[in-house]
Amino acid sequence: MKLNRRQFSMLALAAGASSVPAFAKGTYPERPIELIVPFAPGGGTDLSARLIVPYIEKYLNGTIAVINKPGAGGQVGAVQIARAKPDGYTIGFMNVPNTMMKPHERDAGFTVDSFDPIANLVFDPAVLATRADSKYKTLADVVAECKARPGKVTIGSAGIGSNTHLDLLRFEHLAGIKFHHIPYDGGAAPRTALLGGHLELIASALGDCQRFQKEGTIRMLGILTKERFPMAPDVPTYAEQGYPLEGGASRGLVAPEGMDPGQIAAIEKAVEQALQDPELIKKAEEIALPLVFMNSKEYGAYLQKSNQELAEAWKATPWVE
């Protein structure tokens, strides 16, 4: 059958339309995107999200609403992300190892495979901190007190199975000491308890403590990086104090499994541009928030590798508190 020019054009248009992803028929995003943060307002994960999101919006040309869904060490929010419709309008903040540890501890309602990786945004080094007026000045002071009062020195963390808890366990093992560990839900609550005089120490993150150290209310005793960290050069490493430990938490964006690859690519590109924005870089440096970009493929590989390491850690040293 011969086609005239009009018939050919109509068929070509129809064929082209059928090959275009659904989201591309309009301009993505066409409505606000919900970003679920599985931790309470004020903690490191929440602060990271709220600092970076406006710059992602800038390059995505869309609106992102940050919604806090705390509970069970990130499990509540993670389940909501995993069960959301993968239509590109619900994404989530993933904290590794904090949230990703939950499926190894119990039936959490999600696994690493419940999510499509979008991009990593932050890697926040772990720290040990106390109040600025505390008697503790070094890790040696802490170790000595723990040996004098075994199991009595109070320390708060972001929760059972969080990176701060895991770092605490490793420090106890290496130093031969035992703390009185009090787990919280996220990083903001233990910091508040410390400042209120309810804790002696906190296992925390640089991003959670830097502003308070600058204000003169918190003193960081050690940071879990290989060398002194450029954003906090006055904080000694654990290694230089005799305890060769490294640790921290990554924070990135994930989507429910099955999100359109084109939508993922759009957010991924906006994140990459955002993390190169001079204004954001300056603001992040002011609060010692290390911006670390990984694209979707790199971040996916990182999540799988971290998940395997967490499975091995749980198998070797399961904790019950």
From TrEMBL:
The keyword Transmembrane is annotated on this UniProt entry: no
Coiled-coil regions listed in the entry: none
Domain of life: Bacteria
UniProt entry keywords in alphabetical sequence: Receptor, Signal
SUPFAM superfamilies: Periplasmic binding protein-like II (SSF53850)
Membrane-spanning residues: none
Signal peptide region: 1-24
Family: Belongs to the UPF0065 (bug) family.
Protein's UniProt name: Tripartite-type tricarboxylate transporter receptor subunit TctC
Organism from which the protein derives: Chelatococcus composti
